[in-house]
């Protein structure tokens, strides 16, 4: 939902995003506030879904320095930047997963990544034309968090929400994972 906010904020139509009970509890402030700096208009119920995204607003580029390490926030802002006038950048001080960057580059977007003393500066320009290509999405890599918790693999991501969430995984989740795997046999 956070990524969709970035895509929909720059469209020529209004959108309403709803979620199930769980998704409706997730905080959306982290995307609503920065998107407002790009002139996006998003109504929410105290920063939670349902979200009404008012299109027809020309988005303006912005240079962001997010206070939290969040792949979803970074992706949301880069996706919004594709429909904004000028260059939108996100300074990533702590590395988060980079699937959006890789996907956009694969689709022909001129996405720049520059190492600086303060982190990686990721930038896109507006009005990009994306090239349609085949994409294979095997599964959500985050499900690996169930196992990486034991191996401490999230250490390198720093003290962000992914790490906190992986630490809160209970052993019962291994049983859920086995069920999940039976349902999704192509899971790798
Ligand atoms: O911002 C992010 O990149 C993420 C936020 C998390 O969501 P919640 O903060 O809603 O749990 C979770 O989906 C995942 O750890 C990635």
From TrEMBL:
It comes from the Eukaryota. The keyword Transferase applies. Keywords: Transferase. Residues 1-142 form the Enolpyruvate transferase domain. Pfam families: EPSP_synthase (PF00275). The lineage of its organism: Eukaryota, Metazoa, Spiralia, Lophotrochozoa, Mollusca. This is 3-phosphoshikimate 1-carboxyvinyltransferase. One of its GO terms (molecular function) is 3-phosphoshikimate 1-carboxyvinyltransferase activity. The keyword Transferase applies. One of its GO terms (biological process) is chorismate biosynthetic process.
